[in-house]
């Protein structure tokens, strides 16, 4: 057989294969399928991928996907994770421009920061039913997340984790099915003006409300135990916030550059304040701190750095008093604005502690003088009543005489 005939036969075979007449005869397919040699695995952790992309099937036995394993890989189009995988690390699939689908089992419990961030073609993820922990921006800038949003229900919630609220507007009430506000959830939202956080929420993640420049009021329930790094950073119009009485941690930069914030009451559940927690709060005047606080940052005078109008309010011989003296910050003992007050029937009077602290109010006789949540007293009939403000377990009293 001459060379011309051999070349002709090969040409015809390839042509027939391309149009589907002959089966594959060692002509490389356009789509690649991963083999076990494509993966570097150490102690159950997938640490590197060296395959050519296409449809990637991670081998059984892998328990975790290390951070950045597939990051910026434009060749992979789909990924199947085995039942053995329980954790997906930070930026594992970040900016995989041609990744369209990810299939995982209920065994996956945690998904790290930026895990699928900016996967521009990602439209299918299944299943997320077993996931308990999701970090910030895990699915941001993906068609999958865009599809989850809607005008009628702007919240995207996965197993109690609120992962997106960037389309929320006005007065936002977070559903009581949420237990965690994930990092970056409301980042850059310019439309929300207030947010109510229900009793179900335990933690507010890093940068959860960062750059929400029109947010004015935060109504926080007493269930919240932690406020993450930079959670309210650059909320430049934030004026009103009442911290949870269960709060155990305020991380660095949590309220950085909240320029309109004037008053903060640190709950006695908190024992320390992290560095730079309230840096650049230039309008902050009243900071009330209990004697349970025994540490204010570890860098020196940085927790309230660049707060030029600040005065600390607390109890005698407390840690915060010595901290204030050491750092030349004004300190005042907590007192009630008045201990005796005479009112006419029908008259109202607003009673405060000198620190403007958020406290609880109670009247000894509501039929004579009642008091509301904010310390507003209403004189009802002639007689005397004692109004009690309770803060950090200590009572401050004012006798009201109604004539």
From TrEMBL:
Pfam families for the chain: Big_2, LRR_5
Signal sequence residues: none
Superkingdom as given in the UniProt entry: Bacteria
Regions annotated as coiled coil: none
Protein name, per record: Leucine-rich repeat protein
Gene3D superfamilies: 2.60.40.1080, Ribonuclease Inhibitor (3.80.10.10)
Domain BIG2 as annotated: residue spans: 330-401
Lineage: Bacteria, Bacillati, Bacillota, Clostridia, Lachnospirales
SUPFAM superfamilies assigned to the protein according to its UniProt record, in alphabetical order: Invasin/intimin cell-adhesion fragments (SSF49373), L domain-like (SSF52058)
InterPro entries named in the record: Big_2, Invasin/intimin_cell_adhesion, LRR_5, LRR_dom_sf, Surface_bspA-like
